[in-house]
Every structure is written in C-alpha cells, then in structure tokens.
Amino acid sequence: MASAQFSIKGKITDQSGQALPGATVSISNPNVNTQTDNRGLYTIDNLTAGTYVIKASFVGFQPVTRSIAVNGNQTINFSLSSNVFTTEEVTVTATRANKTSPTAFTNLSKKDLQKNNFGQDLPYLLNQTPSVVTTSDAGAGVGYTGIRIRGSDASRINVTINGIPYNDSESQGSFFVDIPDIASSVNNIQVQRGVGTSTNGAGAFGGSINIQTTTRRDTGYADISSSAGSYNTFKNTLNFGTGLMGGKFAVDGRLSQITSDGYIDAASSNLKSYFVSGAYYGNNSTLRANIFTGKERTFQAWNGIPDYIISDNAIPNHRTYNELGLMSNGQRYRDQVDDYLQNHYQLLYDRKLSDKLSFSGALHYTRGKGYYEEYRNNDLIANYGLKAPSPASDTTNLARRRWLDNYFYGVTYALKYTPQSNLNVTLGGAYNQYKGAHYGNIIYTEKGEGIPPNYQYYRDDAKKNDFNIFTRGEWRLGQVVLNADLQYRRIDYSFLGLDRNLNNVQQQVTLNFFNPKAGITYVLDENSNVYASYAVGNHEPNRDDYTNSTPSTRPKPETLHDFEAGYRTSGDVFKGGINGFYMLYKNQLILTGALNDVGTPIRVNVDDSYRAGVEFDGRVQATKQLSIAATATLSANKIKNYTQLLSNYDDNTQVPLFLKKTDIAYSPSFIASGEIAYSPIKGGEIALLNKYISSQYLDNTSNTNPAGFTSTGNNRFVRDRLLKNYFVSDLRVRYNFAVKHVKNIALGLQVNNIFNKEYEANGATYPDIEGGQVVNYNYFFAQAKRNFMTSVTISF
C-alpha cells in the first residue's frame, strides 16, 4: 500500500460558488504546484500514502491551508473568501463590470493571454472575443496594429492600465506598439462592449479594454521566453519576481525585445520594453509603484497597397508592395520610420478603511517623445514657409521629421462603501492634464536651396484638461439587482487651428458631458442571470477634427444612446451568453474611408445612425480533454439620409450622392470566431482557432455611385469600394512539462493562416469622377499568408 499512487482533485470557488480559473494549488513535500482550469478544477497525481499540507490561493482572496491524510484518491474542494486590502483590485474594479452587471463583457486571465502570446501585438490576443476585428499594417501582427469592437475604431475604445487612461489625449487612439509585449506583464483584462461602466479617460464609446498588470505572487520566480518564426520575427522576454519578502515586500520585472521584417516590404519593427513593479503590503493597505517603458522604431507601412497592384498576380510582390520611402532614383529611403519612446510611471494605493469602506488612488505620469521621418519627392518649397531660389526651382527632394513631444499626468481615485452585504456604492473620478508639442524639421534637401540645417517649419502647442467624477451603486433585492451609474466629464482643450479667416491661431474648446447609466439584473441562480440596461455616452472630436476645420465647420461631439439586454450562465459544462444591443447615435463621427498623410482615418459627422445586433459567446467542456468555444455577432450598421460629394475633375464641380439609408464603413454585418482545443496528454494541448469576417465597405456609400455614373471599367484590377469577406484558421500547439530544478518548460508552435488564405483586413478609398466615370482609388492592407512562430519558456 505504501508504494501505491494516489491523487487529490477538487474545485476552487469563491464564497458565492463561482469557479476561480487560474487559482494555485500546492503541496510542499514533495514540492508540487498546479493551477485550476477554466472550470476551477485541479488534479495532483502520483502521491504516495501519507499526510500532506495542501494550500489553495488566488490573487484577491485569503489563502486556505489544510492538512490531508492520503490513503486513497480524494476530492478536496476549497472556498476562498475575498481579501480586500491585498487584492490590488479596488483600483480596477471601480471601473469594471461584475457577474451581475447589466453590461456585455469578457474576462481574460493571464493564462488565457499566455496561450497566444508569441509576440503579436495585444489586439491579436483579444481576437477571439466577441465583435472584435483586428488589423496589422505590416501584415503579421507585429508593429502597428488596429482593433475595432462592434465596428467602432480604436479612438472610441477606452483603454485603461490599472484604471489609468492609456488612450492618446488628442488622437484618442491606443498605440500598443508603444508598449510592446505589455501582455507579458498583464494579470488579467476585461473587454466591455458598448458604453459599459463609467471609466477614466476618453473613448468609452464603442467599448473598453481594462488592463490590470502584475499583481501579488507569494513565491519567487524567473521565466525566460524566446520565440522565433516567419519574416525573421524574434521575441525574447525575461520575467522575474522576488515573491513576498518578509510578508511585506515584492518586486517584479520584465525585459523584452521583439524584432520583425514584417510581411509587407520593408515594414520592419524593432521594439524594446521593460516593466518594473515594487509593492508594499501592509495589514490594511497596499502601495505599488510601476515603471514601464516602450521604444519602437517601425518602417512606415500606413498607406496600404494600390488595388491594381494587389490584384495583379503577374507582379512578383503584388501583395507586399510598399510605396513609402521610394526615392526618385528608385532606391528606398532607409530612415522612412516612426520612432517613439514612451515612459510610464504609476503609484497605486489601496486601503481598507473599515469593514465597509475601502479606498484606491493613483498618481500617474507619462512622458513621450518621438517623430516620423519621411522622404519627399519634388515637394514645393513654399509649403515650408520659404521662398524658392527661382521660379524654375520651386520644388526639391527633401527629408523631414515631424515630432510629437508630450506629457500626460494626473490623479485617479475611487471610494467604495458597502453599508450592507446587498448594497455597495462607489464614488470615483480623475483629473488629468496633457501637454503636447507638435513641430516639424527639415533634415536635409537634395540641392540645399538655402534652407538652414534642422529648420523648423511649423509648431503647434496643445493642452488638454480632462476632469470626471462618477458615482455608481448596486442594490440587491432578493433575486433583483439594480444598478445606477452617473458620470460628469469636463474637457478643456487648447490647440492651434484655423479661425474663420483661415489664419492659424490658438483656440480654446470647452465641453461638458453628462453620462447616465441604469440597469436591472434578475438572478436566476448563482450561475445564471438575465439583464437589461440603458446608457448614454458622449465623446469629443479628436485633434485632426479640430485642426482641419474652422469654427463654422467644426465637427460636433458625438452622443450615443445604448440599449443592451442579455442572458448569461456559467456552469461546469457550458459557460456563455447572448446579448442584444441597439446603439443609437447623434452626430456620430464616422470614417469617410480616406486616410490623412500619417495613415489616420478622416471623419465627418452624420446626424442619425445606429448599430443593432445580437452577440453570442459560449464554451463547452465536452470532455476533460476537449473544449469547444465560439462567438458570433450579427448586426446592422446604418446611416440615415447620408450625402457624399465626389469631385468631378471633368468640370471641377462636386457631384452629390444622396442615400436614404446606407451601411457604415468598416462595419461587417457578421463576425464569428471559434476554438477547438484538445489535450491528448497531460500538459499538452492542440487548438484550432478560426475567424470569419463578412464583407465590409470602405466608405459610407454601400458601393453606390451617383445617378448617371458607373465605375470605371478601364482597368480590370480596380476593385469596388469593398473589403471582401475572409475566413482564416490558425493552429496552436502547447506542451508543458517539468524536470529537476525547473518548475516548468513550455514549448509552443503557432501556425497562422494555415490554409494560406489571401485576404485584406483593412483599406482606404478615394473615389472621384474622371472621363464621365467614377474612378475608385483603393488601397488595401494585405495580411500575411501562412506563417508560423515557435516558442520555448523555461520557468524557475
């Protein structure tokens, strides 16, 4: 009997019975650690008879330790109670939805992210969540990437890191390329769809991505990870942590480098980053300081590929052609790059003031500086405020740098009061200030032309103050949960822009927004509920909207009325839900389909538009070894009474195109994803991941032409103003095992686009009228054909 082998298995839950995926279960002699799966289940095998001390722990909960006498297979379940003052989650839960919130959301754990983290940018790790579309300028997910949720672009998706705004204050985009490999320092992410809960920063209009970085780990660790694959892509990461020292202190850190040539010609990336975090854990408080930095240098690929080239299979590089940086001599300008450094400093404080009251606050400071450099063929000297040497030489070949030098700092806070177990109220908010200098220098000119070295030809200083305060309450009355959420936000923005006389002058804009939200949830049981909500979101125009207009033509702020209703359930076999949404917009700033000179979408207001649809997501644990997951979104995305003007170069007029109802650009009507994962052996998994995106229009005309005009047929390669539908499959293989003195060795293989599909995930269009026909000047962002990444991670 003494030599017999036994096992201990069980389930880890919170006090409400909700499973805790990723919880740690350990015994000390022998030293064995394991984690619970997505159902909260764990198994420890190969134990001989004897007495063991088994410990269950999970970040944010009190650990539980038991002494177990083993003389046969046993089932040991643990129920963990919340530990407020060490969770470090007050900071983020103030802006997060919970399982009874009337909001559509998806939670991703560190384990979920690690499975797919081979070096691609963070949006690609969210690709299997509902209603998400991802794009890559370089074609393979390294470098500049994009994400849309329910058709809303990144400027409408609020991103916070530990409750601190990450969206750029002026452009409102989130550039994850500036913090490469941040996923390796993330503990969990919540993706909300729709207006969602009140949050800090701009962009909470179409969705939210709420990121929580590294949190407490009680034992020391070191992870060395390397990945290599197609297009000379390499990723090297070192993660380390001291664990809890003296019961009070912990330090965590990460160093990363990612390099890639990119799928598109010359679309290379050289990305470096580090993350350092130190924490102090008191009896009733936690103080954590985070410093993280990203340095990116990427060759520009933001124009896309002309449709006549991408469609011409006779051209050898027809899918990878990059026109940026091509000089008059046919050579490529080697410094046609985007070069940017961003430093983040965060000081986070959480305190349990009493059994009913807790506080979290944060100070933050972000410093960014960088430029993009470009070669210009035959550029007009007059464009730079200079006089040409002679009328015959009014143009020159030159290189210029356009700089962004900015500061962003502020404070966030949340005070949570729980007077009784069925009632809680949160008061939170933030005050942030942004200062940004935009200026341009001429680096050199081909012939000199008397231009001084490093001549500064423009400068624009901007300042933005952003204040918000919100209160949110949740009251449970039997099986009914009532939610109310009120936010006030004030923005003061100063910028250099055109006045009514078309002179560039410093201008000031002040906006005041009130964003109320209310919802009701009916709890069917501890694992299932139905809900409904109504929320209002307001969103300001971005920098380009202001600087490219005059006061009389200035875009208006957007307003969204968001109606949501759904059902969700979480069981041992099935976990998922269905959600319906109706998003009614006033003055929505829609994408026109055109890009400006740095690849940023151009926008205009439309008076009346909407998005309506149904989302489904679910996961079935068919057997212990087999799981099947799927998401699907079916939607209608429409503009009412839309007019677009097309330039007629035959007579220099504007031809109007009026559409009573039309489709919103970049808004596919059907989005679906699926994952089939099978574990044939312990520690091993093979998964097939699929993604389908239906066709989507590049502009808001639904590919309709003005009356009396047809599209040109002179070039058979010219396409409609349309992104074709695509279905792409990826294969992921993981195997984990341990050897003496090494906690874990993880081997991974990811084969993307295994069926070698040719497709484009993004594009731009510039239609006009020439020779009596509509000519479509389309540009597409081709995505990589079959490619792969391998990885090995060694954990000590």
From TrEMBL:
SUPFAM superfamilies named among the record's database cross-references: Carboxypeptidase regulatory domain-like, Porins
Record keyword Iron present: yes
Alphabetized UniProt keyword annotations: Cell outer membrane, Ion transport, Iron, Iron transport, Membrane, Receptor, Signal, TonB box, Transmembrane, Transmembrane beta strand, Transport
Subcellular location, principal: membrane
TonB-dependent receptor plug domain location: 99-207
Record's GO cellular component terms: cell outer membrane
Subcellular locations according to the entry: Cell outer membrane
Superkingdom of the source species: Bacteria
The family this protein is said to belong to: Belongs to the TonB-dependent receptor family.
Membrane topology term: Multi-pass membrane protein
Pfam family, one: CarbopepD_reg_2
Segments forming domain TonB-dependent receptor-like beta-barrel: 285-754
GO MF term set: siderophore uptake transmembrane transporter activity
Identification of the protein by name: TonB-dependent receptor
